[in-house]
Design brief:
transmembrane; Rhopdopsin 7-helix transmembrane proteins; thromboxane receptor activity; glycoprotein; mainly alpha; globular; two-stranded antiparallel sheet; two-stranded antiparallel ribbon; 10 helices
Length: about 350
């Protein structure tokens, strides 16, 4: 009786065609060092980016920039916690060589890691789409909001994204889909299979991620076109919103890197469950490693985009044809009269708090 109950409890996370045991896993020093270095690099990068963002938040005087920095802080905290939780489990596996079946016979630990993978995977994509919507509204209808998005509302929106991603990650525990241990046995993730419930959950995960990227692409494209018309058009002398360009550069880079890192995994999951083909564990592992790179690349976007020369370069590109009798110098670049200095936290008569 107890053996039957044990088999049933193992079924939902160890029921693959070739269950992974500790004996079948090839533990190598390279795997342990790779996972440890990868996690340490990501954690240190996100921690450094958080310091940069907090410093910028305290120095800025633009209300729209303050809310945008709160979104970025939420993204950095999410990436940091994702690497901390999943990286700790993976590194522990390679160091201690624990056996999942002995350590977690009831699959509670596997479910926790699977939920973490889905939650920390969807959060950056949903936050990117949320920031794209906020910037789209702020740029195209700057007077539609009486006082822009307040800091408290921005925090509520970040919390709402976390709740949404958390609800999706809980679906397998509610009966929709399941989490299974994956090759090489160091992590758990959603079960990519043709079973109706697993198939439904795979489609939800992949479609939510792809839809978030699509929304980000469309809205960011419209926002960039609008900004170029405003900054480089005939009315550029009356409406200079150079700090908006800086935020859009960051948002575009976030979208591009997220698309490169996540699209292979999301598209592969969707195409696999919709076709008669079975999932290839090695390719899934490769796609997941690509997706994890996103958590390392994101913080360097915030760090590098804080450099004053980048801001002056944006001025040079947008205002190189503008005529000016008294140009203002900025790190070697000449800026037209009336434009805002790109020094962090500075304001001028043209610094309208959109």
């Amino acid at each position: 009786m107890s053996n039957n109950q044990s088999n049933q409890s193992l079924a939902f996370c160890f029921s693959g065609s070739s269950p992974i045991s500790n004996k079948a896993v090839n533990h190598t020093v390279a795997s342990a060092y790779f996972s440890a270095v990868f996690s340490a690099l990501g954690l240190s990068s996100n921690l450094f980016a958080l310091v940069v963002l907090v410093k910028a938040f305290h120095q800025t005087k633009s209300r729209s920039r303050s809310s945008f920095l709160l979104f970025l802080c939420g993204l950095v905290v999410t990436d940091f916690m994702g690497l901390l939780v999943t990286g700790t489990i993976v590194v522990s596996f390679h160091v201690t060589h624990f056996d999942w079946m002995l350590l977690d016979p009831n699959c509670h630990f596997c479910n926790f890691m699977g939920m973490s993978m889905v939650f920390y995977g969807l959060c950056p994509l949903l936050l990117g789409a949320t920031m794209a919507v906020e910037r789209f509204v702020g740029i195209n209808w700057p007077f539609a909001r009486s006082a822009n998005i307040s800091k408290s509302r921005a925090c509520y929106m970040v919390f709402g994204v976390w709740v949404s991603a958390g609800f999706i990650s809980l679906l397998p525990l509610l009966g929709l889909g399941s989490y299974h241990i994956q090759v090489p046995g160091s992590w758990c993730f959603l079960n990519i299979s043709h079973m109706p419930l697993d198939m439904a959950f795979c489609l939800i995960f992949s479609l939510v991620g792809l839809l978030s990227l699509a929304v980000s692409f469309v809205l960011n494209t419209v926002s960039v076109v609008t900004l170029l018309r405003v900054c480089c058009g005939q009315d550029s002398s009356r409406r200079r919103r150079d700090y908006e360009l800086e935020m859009m550069v960051q948002l575009i880079l976030i979208m591009v890197i997220a698309s490169i890192c996540w699209c292979p995994l999301l598209i592969y999951i969707m195409m696999t469950v919709l076709s008669a083909a079975s999932a290839r564990p090695d390719f899934v592992l490769l796609c997941l490693r690509m997706a994890t790179i996103n958590q390392i690349c994101d913080p360097w976007i915030y760090i590098l985009c804080q450099e004053s020369k980048l801001r002056c370069l944006l001025h040079k590109l947008c205002f190189r044809r503008a005529s000016s009798t008294s140009p203002v110098s900025c790190s070697g670049f000449a800026l037209p009269r009336g434009t805002r200095s790109w020094t962090l936290g500075s304001t001028s008569s043209s610094d309208v708090p959109y």
